[in-house]
Prior knowledge:
This protein has helices at residues 15-28, 52-63, 84-95, 107-110, 119-122, 142-148, 180-188, 199-207, and strands at 2-8, 32-37, 69-71, 100-106, 127-131, 152-153, 159-161, 167-171. It is an alpha/beta fold. The chain has a single domain (2-176), classed as Rossmann fold (3-Layer(aba) Sandwich). It has an 8-stranded mixed beta sheet with strand order 3-2-1-4-5-8-7-6, sandwiched between helices. Strand 2 (32-37), helix 2 (52-63) and strand 3 (69-71) form a beta-alpha-beta unit. Helix 2 runs antiparallel to helix 8 (199-207). The longest helix has 14 residues, at 15-28. The chain is globular and about 50 Å long. The N and C termini lie far apart (42 Å).
Amino acid sequence: MRLGLFGGTFNPIHLGHLRAAEEVSESLGLDRLLFIPAARPPHKDAMAVTSFAVRLEMVRLAVAAHPRFEVSDLENQRPEKSYSIDTLRWFRREYGPEAAIFFIVGLDAMLEIQTWREYQHLFSLCHFVVLDRPGYEPADLHPILGEELHCRATAAGQVFVHPSGNKIYFQPITRLDISSTQIRRLAAQGRSLRYLLPEAVRRYILNHQLYR
Length: 212
């Protein structure tokens, strides 16, 4: 089993998320890729985040027709905040030591990894896939990976190897200049959301008057 885990607030999910997931899935030959909406994101104001049930439904609508994409409500099954370390431990227990698990994060989020709970232990649980982000360079992460986590760089510098043997991959992706913040702002202004997110998600936002 080669399993991808793509966590995020997904408020809402959009074509940038989906295209990145498609490219990672193809590049790494994943059998399944799970989108995992955060129920109670520790780095965000809970009052500013749309309800979990609404965000979960939008992700379900977005991935319904894809043969490898699925959605997990795991983080809503726990009463505490959505810490990645707990999620990764759950998947490692569930799938066992033989599964190749790939945790997908943006380079911007990865640069804040030292603020995550038990961040030093994350890399012994799975591989990491770090998505390219405008305005950031993979080299920005090298001091953390090399000095803090004692990872070894490969010759090309696009893959680091953790002492556990797990790898950190830098994944270039098609840069679609779309953000959830932008979509929420357009929705609040009553402007068009076409071609920014899946049509089923666009209709759901309009029918439920989200972000107004």
